[in-house]
Design the sequence.
């Protein structure tokens, strides 16, 4: 079959047509003909060895952990799915017996053989996975949008880290208007928030995000400086900040910028922590490379009583994500063109990766059917 093969030890990604087609081996196996398969920001981190312990299988693996497809064969024990079903795949699973399982944090399981990371995934024509990883797509959700189930499940995890929903009048900042930033914007929109600002340096991505028609301000990060000019962030800053850039420069506290003298810093990325109002919630959602560091002024965390959280993958969120897709479809917020998704053939993987890296696409998917 056709697939993209990642060889970790030599750090090469290559297109091949002679990869062995997987077959149903176990009674709970489901064989899927992949339809759409996304490239995720973390795939770049995987291929650059920037994910610490969560690195892909070194001696060769098919990457791709965000995909949809059609069931073509099921094992003898599979009752939930039948040939022809349209499905999406949750790439993560806990071993079920470790201490993380009993602590209700299955996503920390060190035995997670993540599909498209530790075992063959969706940058291929076929993939075989256990039925526990498979989710039926509602008939309203087309296969292309179905490939957004996994990223939306991660976004929902990031959303739930707030614990308590902020007041509807809260000032929200989303840093980065790639697909993840746009997904958070849609989530705030469907939950009734109207004071949302999205900052993004790439003009094309700003245009795409504005064209979603949510009525939110989509601005260059430098404009954030102007917006906050002369204001005291303690009382006028943002209540909720989601960093969806995974770029240390975007989250770094550099110097005080929310003060009258802030024009000095107008050429650098604004500092997340300094933009926060007292009592703010900050999510470091985007994945910064392992080992990279930022400088933080602990006094600000104390003074503002900041709640700063991370968000790792998607525990208990997949089914909800699939249902959310149905809601978003009904609200016209699941049009892939409008979301800035570009679709490529597997063979065009170099161009596909490039267009995501340079920001000419907000998201890239391979089309396999
Ligand atoms: Zn992903
Ligand atoms: Zn485990």
Sequence:
């Amino acid at each position: 079959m056709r697939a993209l093969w990642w060889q970790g030890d030599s750090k090469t990604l290559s297109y091949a047509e002679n990869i062995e087609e997987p077959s149903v081996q176990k009674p709970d196996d489901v064989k899927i003909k992949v339809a759409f398969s996304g490239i995720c920001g973390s795939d770049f981190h995987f291929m650059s060895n920037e994910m610490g312990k969560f690195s892909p299988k070194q001696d060769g693996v098919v990457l791709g952990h965000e995909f949809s497809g059609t069931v073509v064969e099921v094992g003898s024990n599979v009752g939930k799915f039948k040939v022809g079903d349209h499905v999406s795949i949750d790439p993560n699973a806990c071993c079920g017996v470790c201490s993380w399982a009993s602590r209700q944090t299955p996503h920390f399981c060190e035995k997670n053989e993540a599909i498209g990371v530790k075992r063959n995934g969706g940058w291929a024509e076929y993939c075989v996975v256990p039925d526990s990883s498979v989710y039926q797509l509602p008939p309203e959700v087309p296969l292309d949008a179905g490939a957004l189930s996994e990223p939306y499940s991660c976004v929902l995890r990031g959303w739930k880290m707030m614990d308590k929903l902020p007041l509807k009048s809260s000032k929200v900042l989303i840093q980065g208007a790639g697909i993840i930033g746009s997904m958070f914007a849609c989530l705030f929109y469907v939950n009734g928030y109207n004071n949302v600002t999205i900052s993004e340096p790439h003009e094309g991505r700003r245009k795409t995000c504005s064209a979603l028609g949510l009525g939110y301000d989509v601005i260059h990060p430098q404009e954030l400086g102007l917006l906050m000019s002369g204001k005291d962030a303690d009382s006028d800053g943002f209540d909720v900040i989601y960093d969806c850039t995974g770029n240390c420069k975007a989250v770094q506290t550099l110097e005080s910028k929310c003060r009258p003298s802030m024009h000095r810093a107008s050429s650098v990325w604004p500092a997340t922590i300094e933009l926060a109002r007292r009592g703010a919630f900050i999510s470091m959602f985007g994945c910064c490379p392992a080992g990279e560091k930022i400088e933080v002024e602990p006094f600000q965390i104390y003074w503002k009583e900041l709640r700063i959280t991370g968000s790792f993958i998607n525990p208990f969120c997949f089914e909800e994500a699939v249902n959310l897709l149905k809601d978003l479809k009904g609200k016209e917020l699941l049009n892939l063109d409008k979301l800035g998704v570009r679709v490529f053939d597997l063979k065009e993987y170099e161009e596909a990766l490039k267009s995501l890296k340079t920001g000419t696409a907000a998201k890239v998917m391979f089309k396999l059917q």
Observations:
- The mean pLDDT is 91.
- The first strand starts at residue 3 and ends at 7.
